[in-house]
From TrEMBL, chain A:
Catalytic activity annotation: (1S,2R)-1-C-(indol-3-yl)glycerol 3-phosphate + L-serine = D-glyceraldehyde 3-phosphate + L-tryptophan + H2O
Pfam families given in the database record: PALP
Organism: Glycomyces paridis
EC number: 4.2.1.20
This protein's GO CC annotations: cytoplasm
Cofactor: pyridoxal 5'-phosphate
Described purpose of this protein according to its UniProt entry: The beta subunit is responsible for the synthesis of L-tryptophan from indole and L-serine.
SUPFAM superfamilies, A to Z: Tryptophan synthase beta subunit-like PLP-dependent enzymes
CDD domains, A to Z: Trp-synth_B
Top enzyme category: lyase
Pathway listed: Amino-acid biosynthesis; L-tryptophan biosynthesis; L-tryptophan from chorismate: step 5/5
Similarity section: Belongs to the TrpB family.
Protein name, per record: Tryptophan synthase beta chain
Phylogenetic lineage: Bacteria, Bacillati, Actinomycetota, Actinomycetes, Glycomycetales
Every Tryptophan synthase beta chain-like PALP domain range: 55-378
Automatic annotation (TrEMBL), chain B:
Self-association and partners: Tetramer of two alpha and two beta chains.
Pathway: Amino-acid biosynthesis; L-tryptophan biosynthesis; L-tryptophan from chorismate: step 5/5
PANTHER family in the cross-refs: TRYPTOPHAN SYNTHASE ALPHA CHAIN, CHLOROPLASTIC, TRYPTOPHAN SYNTHASE, ALPHA CHAIN
Transmembrane segments: none
Protein name in UniProt: Tryptophan synthase alpha chain
EC code(s) of this entry: 4.2.1.20
UniProt-recorded Gene Ontology molecular function terms: tryptophan synthase activity
Amino acid sequence: MPDPDPSGHWGEFGGRFVPEALISALEELEAAHAESQGDPAFLAELDRLGREYGNLPSPLYLAERLSEETGVEVWLKREDLNHTGAHKIRNVLGQALLTKRMGKTRIIAETGAGQHGVASATAAAYFGLECTVYMGEEDTRRQALNVARMRLLGAEVVPVTTGSRTLKDAMNEALREWVASVDHTHYLIGSVGGPHPFPMLVRDYCRGIGDEARAQFLERTGTLPDVVAACVGGGSNAMGIFTAFLGDEDVRLYGFEAGGDGYDTGRHAATITAGQVGVLHGARTFVLQDEDGQTIESHSISAGLDYPGVGPEHAHLAATGRAAYEPVDDAEAMAALEKLARTEGIICAIESAHGLAGALRLAKSLEPGSRVLVNLSGRGDKDMGNVVEYFGFEGEPNAKGEDA
Amino acid sequence: MRVETAFARSRAEDRAALVGYLPAGFPTLADSIKAVDIMIDHGADVIELGLPYSDPVMDGPAIQKAADRALAAGFRTRQVFEVTEAVAGRVPILVMTYWNLVERYGVDRFARDFAAAGGAGLITPDLIPDEAGEWIAASDAHDLDRVFLVAPSSTEERIASTVAACRGFVYAQSVMGVTGARAATSAAAPELVRRTRAHTDLPIGVGLGVRSGDQAAEIGAYGDAVIVGSAIVNCYLDTEDIPSGHQRLAELTADLAAGVRR
């Protein structure tokens, strides 16, 4: 099942809705990807990089106290322990190695809160590639620490001042820049979106999450999980963990989208739940759009999920019913984040907390003892500013002996 | 009126045609109609109406800003038909649009309503023929031109398949980059026109970067149409005063029209 048809479509989704000027680069990329996936030396090098540099494979962890409280077994795929703190290292190492193979010397990337930008800058530093990261001007101010990380790693950060000055505009700007520099520059896209072959290519680099988790799960339990859950923004971590299980019909797949202020408020990023089929950033998929097809701005406490589109393979999995997608709002996600911190001593990313929160909600309707695998896609260090604000941790801590 | 009418005239006069681009609804809805009239009065042979879009990945800052302004003022897709209807009749009117807006309106419905308004056809910068099955059927059904793009990076195979899907003319994107007025036009443009001509008898329009009569003359020497966008938009972006924008547009168009006649 998993590969799209030769023209890059999963059913009606995907394809190439980009200027002709980019088509030859996409064809070159498609050919290079196919060739590299059949080259044992390339795959061995990527595997070595993952192990020695990326801290892969990530552990599979049974969250026992959380499981006791929940009544189902909660297993966490600990992508938060990877180098740079999330599953994204898999994608950037793969694409950067492919960039070298294609003989290109520079990468560009878009970033929202800066996580993909930091990961891209990391891979660029490792491989000695030039790196330019496009980031909405608003975000460069809110995420000054990540801007500093990228600059320390040697990347140039370009604040994007067009449109709504958010992730989608950073992506527009990266595409514009790519047209002008495509002969020596690779666009290191951050998720399973964009024109073919990007959704397939990014998934192929992220699918190690599920491949590892499936083998680890079988080894530990002798069986497969009943449910696999992940958060979905663009959807790279979810495709990463879903892909290995697509053929396991008894394994139910759940993607949890950002419900923002609440699905009913209209201020959310629940693209599959609320969007309509359209074309955005090179692919046909579900898009948050108005009656005329103008993109609607998304909202979420989680910058990594705050995007008005979604990868086309997710759109296809939703349309065919193979995976289910539901919104999780800010409050539910933050409650799950706190619960995981207090029961397990793990501070996860707010993105990942959406996947966990959805799984915990789902657990209430599952048979006791069911096995739920959650992709803990990233760690929460980057989110502490939001956490301080959300939980009101500002000001002096309580003095010793004094009641809270 | 189909675009072949305009090209028949410019060919008869042994010159390139002048194609002027302006987003519908910019600088205001009424003034976009006025601006089109000014361009036609001062020598434009074909008009391209842009459909303002929230995510115009092929456009540089000038056209983005113009589109943002039109959208902020509440521009709706259906208003492009009003503008078309108001200006159609004298020269062919094309709409240049990102694909999602057409898909959202309904491809056949868009073609029907645009043809009814007197429109000539569509230029689709982010739709390649490979993805255009529905549009090809609708443009056949409603007798509209369809203009796809070729680029310096296009392979021979892609130029051949793209021009085979075109009707009216072929749009040669002359530089690898977004729209925007440039001091020097691209050296890649003549080569792209030469390569494209080997595959088609259709007229070839050259776009991206033209801002003066001199450049128009230079491009008109090898292209069949000179397409001007950002320089036209800049007439209104550089001033808060719309009447003086109209004045600048009249002067610019006259300069460009003289350029293609040199």
